[in-house]
Design a protein that fits this description.
Number of domains: 3
CATH superfamily of the largest domain: OmpA-like domain
Shape: elongated
Structural class: alpha/beta
CATH architecture of the largest domain: 2-Layer Sandwich
Number of helices: 11
CATH topology of the largest domain: 60s Ribosomal Protein L30, Chain: A
Largest sheet: 5 strands, parallel
Helix content: 40-55%
Order of helices and strands: EHEHEHEHEHHHEHEEEEHHEHE
Number of strands: 12
Length: 434
């Protein structure tokens, strides 16, 4: 075991197990606590090198725990990294103001953990002095026909785009070849014109201006070749940038879609409210507000609860009456683990065939009453009291067959990331306003 030690504080067993497995790959010892109170008790006799702190927990929450640890001189110097599904610059600023060094999302990737550990100086530098260059590692691939090794990868772009890049490259090469032939012909013609006809031609010297013209044309040809080389490099850079843009687009697809639809719904609601005395039946049809839910997060807590709170406050101020429907839809995820130690989302590149289960175990065990957390129940009661029952809120589970994104067809090359992107899009909360 390694010389460094980490403490993971999270009420979710699956989240603790998943992060512990990742940290053990870096030869780091791991201790766990299922509550902030248990973590503070642990710190009375132990000094870990880093603490990964969840935010939403029963009893003392993550921010309160960070404040308590930083106020104790014996533990104030221990770096704390928030390990939570909360996100955004505002949340990061609040965490750092209390003493946390940063935020590690629960949908972590190996590169996220590696970056955090290097920043905290918990693992040595990436390269030692003897290693001056990068050496690729051959990864063994199961199912190879000769038992050899290799690395499977997906195409960077779709076939039409690759063909378009190939056409551009061929056009550049053809253009350079044409320019070279033209320059060669012009140089030959100029040299021949500079020589007088007759057998004495070989004895005559070539005028200096002819050599100057030839050198100039040759320089133009070399510049054209350099331009072709730069164009080829530009195409490669475009391919790499396009791949990165597609990955970033897939990561923010759910959040961007939710924000757009929330804005459309709010705008339509305000437009209807701007007409004094207009009954609800005359309002334009408003699409539901769709809010994505990260795997393992409380569907009706955290950021989702804050969105519902702001929406109900606005409806109350505008004296809207009727029933607000809140439906929680559970996406199906490719997961690893078991029912005893808990389940976790695997790395995107893992083959789909290696999933231990496909579903949403955390959501499947909830009863209808458990789907409504205490904070939401109190909010619904306060809205009903403020509007004298005119505005009501109905919470229910959504139909699992109502999909926002279709799941991919199961095939040999399907990865966990491909499947879980659809699962993330379907793991959502829909809010319909009257």
């Amino acid at each position: 075991m390694g010389a460094k030690r980490a403490l993971i504080v999270d009420d979710s067993k699956s989240a603790r197990v998943f992060l512990a497995r990742v940290l053990e790959n870096y030869d780091i010892d791991v201790d766990s606590a299922e509550s902030a109170e248990a973590a503070i008790e642990y710190l009375t006799s132990n000094r870990p090198d880093v603490i990964f702190m969840d935010h939403l927990m029963p009893g003392m929450d993550g921010f309160q725990a960070v404040q308590a640890i930083k106020n104790d001189p014996r533990t104030a110097t221990i770096p704390i990294m928030m390990y939570t599904s909360q996100e955004g610059e505002l949340y990061l600023g609040q965490a750092r103001a209390l003493g946390a060094v940063g935020v590690l999302p629960k949908q972590i990737k190996p590169t996220d953990v590696s970056k955090v550990l290097y920043q905290l100086h918990l693992v040595p530098d990436r390269r030692n002095p003897e290693q001056a260059t990068f050496t690729p590692i051959n990864l063994r691939v199961e199912g190879a026909p000769d038992g050899g090794s290799g690395v499977t990868s997906k195409a960077l772009t779709e076939s039409p785009l690759r063909e378009h890049f190939a056409d551009l490259r061929r056009a550049l090469v053809a253009g350079i070849d044409t320019q070279t032939d033209r320059i060669t012909a012009e140089v030959r013609a100029l040299l021949l014109e500079s020589l007088p006809p007759g057998p004495q031609t070989a004895a005559r010297a070539i005028p200096p201006w002819a050599w100057l013209v030839a050198c100039t044309l040759l320089a133009v040809g070399l510049a054209g070749a350099a331009a072709w080389w730069r164009s080829a490099k530009l195409l490669e850079a475009m391919q790499s940038e396009l791949t990165q843009q597609r990955e970033r687009g897939a990561a923010i697809f759910g959040a961007a879609g939710a924000a757009t639809e929330a804005g459309n719904a709010t705008g339509a609601m305000e437009a209807a409210a701007a007409q004094p005395g207009s009954p609800s039946a005359q309002r334009p049809e408003i699409r539901p507000i769709i809010v994505p839910v990260p795997y393992g997060a409380d569907a009706l807590g955290g950021a989702r609860l804050e969105i519902i709170r702001r929406l109900l406050d606005r409806l109350t101020q505008q004296k809207v009456s009727g029933v607000v429907e809140v439906r929680a839809f559970a996406g199906r995820f490719c997961l690893v683990g078991n029912s005893v130690d808990g389940f976790a989302v695997p790395p995107d590149e893992m083959p789909f065939a290696k999933c231990d289960t496909v579903g949403n175990p955390a959501d499947e065990v909830l009863s209808p009453t458990q789907r409504t957390p205490l904070a939401l129940a109190n909010l619904i009661a306060s809205v009903g009291s403020a509007t004298h029952g005119a505005l009501q809120v109905q919470v229910s589970g959504g139909d699992p067959d109502n999909l926002r994104a279709p799941y991919p067809t199961v095939a040999g090359d399907l990865t966990a990331g491909d499947w879980n992107r659809a699962g993330s899009a379907n793991n959502r909360v829909e809010i319909r306003i009257p």
